[in-house]
Amino acid sequence: MKTEESLTLTCTTSRSNPASTITWYKNGSPLQGHPGVINITTITEESSGHSGFITKEQLHMKLQPFDNAANIQCSAKNPDFHDANDVFSREVTLSVLFPPNQPEDCRTQLTKTTPGNELVVNSWLILQCTSCSSNPPADISWYMDGFEVKSSNQTEHQPGQFNGIISHKELQIELTYEHHGLSIYCVATNRDFSGQTYQSKKIDLDVQYAPFSADDVNHKRVAVAVGENAALQCQVRGNPTPYIQWYDQHWNPLPSGDNRLYVKDDLWKTIHESTVYIEDVSNSDYGRYYCNGNNKHGNVEIVIVLTRKSAPDAVLDIDISMVKNIITMCWTAGYNGGDDQTFYVEYVKLPEGIKKTTGEIYDSGFGDFSVNISGLAEGTRYNITVVSKNDYGEKRSRTFTLRTEERIYASSPKHSVTLPIIITSSAIALAGVIVGLVFVIRRWSKANFRHMTSGHSYESINDERRGHSTSESLNDRTQEPGNIESIPLRNIVTREEESDSTSDDDQTSNAYTDLDVKRNSPTYMKPGKLVFEFPRDRLHITETIWTSRFYRIDKAIAWFIDGKDGPSDVAIKIEIESTDPEIRTAMLQEIRLIKKINNDDNVIKMLGYCTEDGPMTLIMEYASYGNLKTYLKDNRQHFTPGKHESARRQMLGFATDVASGMKHLQRNKIVHRYLAAKHVLVCEGGVCKISNFSYTTGVMSDKAFFDTNTTIPYQWMAPETLMNKTFTLETDVWSFGIVVWEIFSLGNNQLQK
After folding, report:
1. For the chain, does the N or the C end have fewer beta carbons within 10 angstroms?
2. What is the percent of the chain where pLDDT is above 90?
């Protein structure tokens, strides 16, 4: 029984004359009545048909923790027989359940067992949580900034007050700079007392670490023309907050006494932002400048090169895909040379040398870029180049040569094909398939041998950003993970020769890696590239969730996806107007963007896509609780403050999830543009995830956002967006504030009015 519950025991004597008296004992000592806690009621009744009396007494106890494991017993005695011994009943041992709060002044204890007073990055923090006495033993949970942290350590026990149990549990954390400023506490609970938690004090972590570049870039370029003003800025993070010293290209400390030059410093907690301003730049000002940040744990040097404005760098990370005679080019912008840049794609028909170009695309400063080239001749070779351009010149990427697909026309029914010709053609085709299979199997065997000896599932590639050549593919498609025989070789697209300017080294580095095929696992088609092409025949649509002008969202079942056996619930986004190249381009851009951010717990996860033999289809994880706005409205009774203690904590958790997901987007310099509660999905465990990337930078421009939307979401827009029709990372922060309002108003529709 639980503490504060009532217990009634009855003691019944045998017949005696006169009536017997009853005495109650607790742990061998007589038990006295105590109003409200212990009450004893005596009932004497005459036995019918015989002389003598039977005496009954009831003991009423309001149980307390100190009653746990107590032995209760009663005895009977006839008052006229002084020499006779008392007659005792059997003992009853009480088991009283009580929460981890005993003795009364006890509190859950949190102690730091790490030696020394300073917490330094890469060291281990060891904390121990000790509960008060409890029956049964308390469970201990750890929390960091309100989120539960799992501990692999076992809970230890020792005897506690009132025959209860005291629980101990350790938490070990390898510290990183991200732990700085977080609060850690532990909570003791008893499974038999739901809703009662006993929290320890909080420990605020002050983690010290060496300085590093706050934007993860240690080498920057700033381009200005002669006579213009320059601002060289660096941000250094460290604890203690780093001190910054600037040096010019001759290693002279700045400021140097030059009236045209001054330094401005701003401090935000562990970040030191320092900016060197140079007015009326002259030729002698060009060169390297060094931002040196240091504290007692180390230092970091950030190099900023002040250069003249110039032509932009060539684009990076070019991806090319082809469907029939439509080619899609995707790329990442390089350095803009200090001036606004645009891009266009040049494609030259071979061997005639007929040159055409696409329209120019403006560099908005965020995300990736892509363009469709349609209307190409079938079965024809083209040289394709991406060109970056500004007012100071242009820079061309490497040139790719590829051949468009050739349409195969059916034979006319008027011309019959003789049996020998059919047999001969079939034999040739069969021989080709056998040769292809032998080739793949040999390469697969070599790949397996290398995987067994190296322990890696795919080869590494060089980074083009560091000046090395990377492999480029015309197709990021993968096949169904299965047996070798199930791979349709016609879909493994290889690249033809590049232009004559490509070196032999480039040809070697761009070769495909060996193909490693394992059932129900991702297939690696080229060095360092994981692709997500998923077979359509393993998708089954069960219901339509939402439909728009260009897309449809369906719930579906996918077999053997995301490394799982059997069927899984998924959500799929399907283009409706599959013949519209602009819709296809937008979805390809969205796929490429999601692949870039597909590694965060608060961003909806892409599981695969279908780009072949049908409409473009994007496969996402299924959010079982739908969007956050609807979820809050449907569960208002649960979230009413005061009715449930956890309501406020859950709503804070939702807001924190959204902030974490948006932080991941901003870290990748992606502007969402349409952050709203209806575009946040609630998944298993109540985890919120950012979704709907159709409007993000890299998928469409600011202008296209306003042109595409028939209903503009003014309620979520920042003032600068309303006035200038521009979106930035900061305007997403404004939208986040509106989402927080939606959360704590439980999806109130007043916002729309």
Report:
1. C
2. 41
Query: Highest mean pLDDT range out of 577-591, 707-721, 729-743?
Result: 729-743
Q: What is the mean pLDDT of residues 120-135?
A: 93
52 φ, ψ (degrees, to nearest 5): 110, 170
> Would the pLDDT of 202 be above 90?
yes
Locus of tokens 């009634």: 8
| Annotation: CATH topology of 624-753 | Transferase(Phosphotransferase); domain 1 (1.10.510)
For residues 647 and 640, the answer to whether their CB atoms sit within 8 Å is yes
Enter the tokens of residue 637. Answer: 């009774």
Residues in the chain: 753
In order of 70, 206, 738, the CA distances from 179 in angstroms are: 48, 8, 28
Q: Is residue 337 left, alpha or beta, with left meaning phi > 0 and alpha meaning psi from -120 to 50?
A: left
Nearest CA among 377, 419, 424 for reference residue 402: 377
**Rounded Cα–Cα distance for residues 89 and 156 (Å):** 38
Question: When comparing pLDDT for 377 and 116, which is higher?
Answer: 377
The CATH number, out of the four listed (3.65.10.20, 2.102.10.10, 2.60.40.10, 3.40.640.10), of the domain defined by the range 100-205: 2.60.40.10
Q: In which band, very low, low, confident or very high, does the pLDDT at 711 lie, cut at 50, 70 and 90?
A: low
Give the CA count within 13 Å in the CB-facing half-sphere of 602: 15
Q: Is the pLDDT of residue 127 over 90?
A: yes
- What is the per-residue pLDDT for 751? 54
Tokens describing residue 526: 């080229």
What is 210-307's CATH number, 3.50.50.60, 2.60.40.10, 3.40.50.2300, 3.40.50.150?
A: 2.60.40.10
Q: Distance between CA 293 and CA 551 in Å, rounded?
A: 50
- Look-up of token digits 């469709």: 372
User: Within its chain, how far is the Cα of 618 from the centroid?
Assistant: 19
